[in-house]
Structures are given as C-alpha cells and as structure tokens.
C-alpha cells in the first residue's frame, strides 16, 4: 500500500524539525527495494502493482530506488535526465565521486521514476564499508555471502543518496524513505545512525528467520514464542542477515508488515510489534461481462496449447481439448510454497486417472526460478518443429487454394483427388518425418546448473512422472519467471494464469499470498 500523505508525525518520533501540522504536500517519497525493476520474487509484483496509485498520489515527488541490472534495464526502463533539480545535482555529485547512478522511468503502469544504483561499480568500497558497519553497528558480514555483500553496498549507497539529497536541498527537506525487506534495510539503519532528517518506514513481507525455519521442517506456528532466535539464526549461518533485518525493524520510525500472521511472527522473531498492518493491494482489472473473461481465457489458453504442441511433438497422443492446465508459481522454496505436496498429489492423481482409463490429460506447470544456463536444446527444437509444421501446412494450403481458385474461375467443380500433387505429399511426408522423436518430452525447459540436487527434479524422479505416453499427468518445470519477451513461452504471468484452469498453492509458509491472489483464474466449468 502507498504510504498515506496523512501519516501522523507523532509516529515519526525523533524528527524534531518536522512541523506537527505539516501535511506532506511538499514531501518527497523514496521507496527502496532490491526488486525495483528487478524480478526476483513477490515484492517485485507488490511494487509494480501499487506503482500507478502511488505515482498518482505523489506525482513528481515519488522515486523508486533499486539496483542497476543491465539486462533488466534494457527491457524495462527508459533512461532519462532527472527533472527534479535537487535529485539531478545529487546524482551528478555521486557520479563524480566514483558511483554509477542511473535515472529513468520504469515502463510499467504509472511509469514511475526510478533511481538505479550500480552496486558492482563501487565494490572497491566493500571492505571499508563492512568495517564501518562493524564499528558503528556491531554487525559483521562474512566475505562468502554475496547476497549480504550486495546488501551492504546497496545500503551504504542508498544512505549516501538520501543524505546527499537532504544536503542539496535549499529548504529544510521533508523526506520519507520506505524500505522493503532486509536487503534494503541497511540503508534505513545508516540513515538513523547518521541522524539524517528523514522519516523512515520499514516493511517486512516475510521474516528471514521464518523462511529458514519453515524450510527446515520445524513446527513453526506452534512454537513461535519458544524459539531462541539468536541460536536459530546462528545455526543456519544467517545471523548477520538476521541482525540487519532486526536492526532495520527497530530503527524504523514506522514498522509495518503485510498480514496479521506475519505481525505475530515479527513480534516474536524480530522482537518488535508492527505499528500497522498494510496488506498488499491487488490491481485487478475488472470486466463488465462474463464473456470478456471467457474470450481472454480462450485466447491465452490457445497460446499455451501452441507451446504444448511444440513441447510434446512426436508424443502428442492426447486430446488438447480435453487437457486441464494446472500451475504453481512463486519463489523457489520447495516445501514453504507447497511444491512437495503438489507433486505428491499429482502422482496420486495420475494413478487414479490411469486406473479409471480417463481420457483427460492434466498438464502441471511449475513456474519457479532456479539456477540455469539457458533453455535446453530439446525444448527449443520442439518449438522450432512446431513452427516448421505450421509453415508447411500454410504452404500446402496456399497451393491447394490456388488450384481451387483456378478451377472455380473456369466454372468447374474441382477434382479433389487431383488437388494435391506428388510434391505436396512429399512436403507433408518430410514434415511428418521431422516429428519423429527418440526421447520423452523434457520435464524441465532449461539446463539446470544443479540438476542432481534440484528438489523438484528429484521428486519427479522418485514419483516417476517422466511425461510418458501412459501417464495422464504431464509435468513442465519452467525455472524462470514468465515474460512476454521469452522465445519459448512468450506470455506475461497474468496472461498465463488467465489461460490455465487451476492454480494450486498449498503453502506452509505464506505471509501474504500475492501469487495466488494476483491472478484471475477461471473455474473448471469454463472448459
């Protein structure tokens, strides 16, 4: 939810320079998150969904701050010059001091301004900033934790940006900085440690320790009050991360979280009760008539079917009109997100469909990002074969149509047996030979870097669902978030969800289920 302009200054204790009656009309809001224009998990969707309303509310005084990732910027951000003179002088000053700061518009609904920080460009300062973090805050970050190293760089650069903006302002600045999650939280801690004139808000979408405890098969919710948090974090080698998250929660003027259950979790694990619960908003497009939903479902389902035709070429021995598309999506946390339960259920469903000789085929998609090095060759070949067959069919159709047209022109009914000549049959036979396949359709669409230890693939091997012809349940593991620019399955998540029949989210740990909540899913009756 966007930070309301009516935010009471009583909750911002420590900001003596702020006028108690100030309505924030000339305030500037910086919203800081590692997932600004950088799709890693659900927070990306949170920020993207609320950006339009926040930009409308704050106008030219709203800036999102995130990391500069070149591959993302090329497709998502239009780089421009800042129109805010204070921000322009701030960025220029930092760039002349050895930083690389970029400014632009994020090409999403609302087109919000983004300030993107190249953390790698200032990696030479990492050891110095780590020493400063230890000296002033008592938090030590080990050298081998790359994610924590990025958090240190991002935190110091964010605090530098906010401090420089305050220094460049001619009048006493009214700055609100809203930080999301532990990866951005260090910037908040440094703002307080340096006593910058900034109102700070920290939002945790899920506690770090909570994720790790649930992933370790702990009876989490029944033992929240009994955990020795320092020991548990130390045992999992995340104590430094936990310290950064807890420090941000305690240093923030306003601490928020996204649900009541996460508020209870934060109170026990982070030792601070949230000041307010701000549930994530859903920007759901509404349609005036049911047929609009049905039309969009049919369009998206048709695109998924085209992908299926290519993926299962040579083994397309099932009726696509009697297929059900199921999916699970989100951050790759095998047990937390319920992928383990989903796979077990699919194995049992496959058995029931087979013993009952059902003609229904269930295709289950797993959309969870994992470490890969590219699409696998067999998957790409399938889409190439599908396109080749489509082109062949069109070639033969055009030749057939031309002969039919010429026959009708002379006033004769065509001799259907002569409409296709030897060359047409040769073209079609060559196309059929191209569909021959010696292997089963792949379960995973990409080359996995850790194939032998991957939880989903190991479960697939255990339950034996290898997309064989005898199986009524097929599995497609797509270890990358969906994108309309993908050469394999060019669909955004919202389109993909609309084309499926059922989303399955049996999560054990789900602070606020954005992935299941953000999709429009038609009932099974829409088939």
Automatic annotation (TrEMBL):
One of its GO terms (biological process) is glycogen biosynthetic process. Keywords: Allosteric enzyme, Glycogen biosynthesis, Glycosyltransferase, Phosphoprotein, Transferase. Pathway: Glycan biosynthesis; glycogen biosynthesis. Pfam families: Glycogen_syn. It catalyses: [(1->4)-alpha-D-glucosyl](n) + UDP-alpha-D-glucose = [(1->4)-alpha-D-glucosyl](n+1) + UDP + H(+). Its EC number is 2.4.1.11. GO terms for molecular function: alpha-1,4-glucan glucosyltransferase (UDP-glucose donor) activity. GO terms for cellular component: cytoplasm. Glycogen synthase participates in the glycogen biosynthetic process along with glycogenin and glycogen branching enzyme. Extends the primer composed of a few glucose units formed by glycogenin by adding new glucose units to it. In this context, glycogen synthase transfers the glycosyl residue from UDP-Glc to the non-reducing end of alpha-1,4-glucan. Part of the GYS1-GYG1 complex, a heterooctamer composed of a tetramer of GYS1 and 2 dimers of GYG1, where each GYS1 protomer binds to one GYG1 subunit (via GYG1 C-terminus); the GYS1 tetramer may dissociate from GYG1 dimers to continue glycogen polymerization on its own. Belongs to the glycosyltransferase 3 family. This is Glycogen [starch] synthase. It comes from Austrofundulus limnaeus.
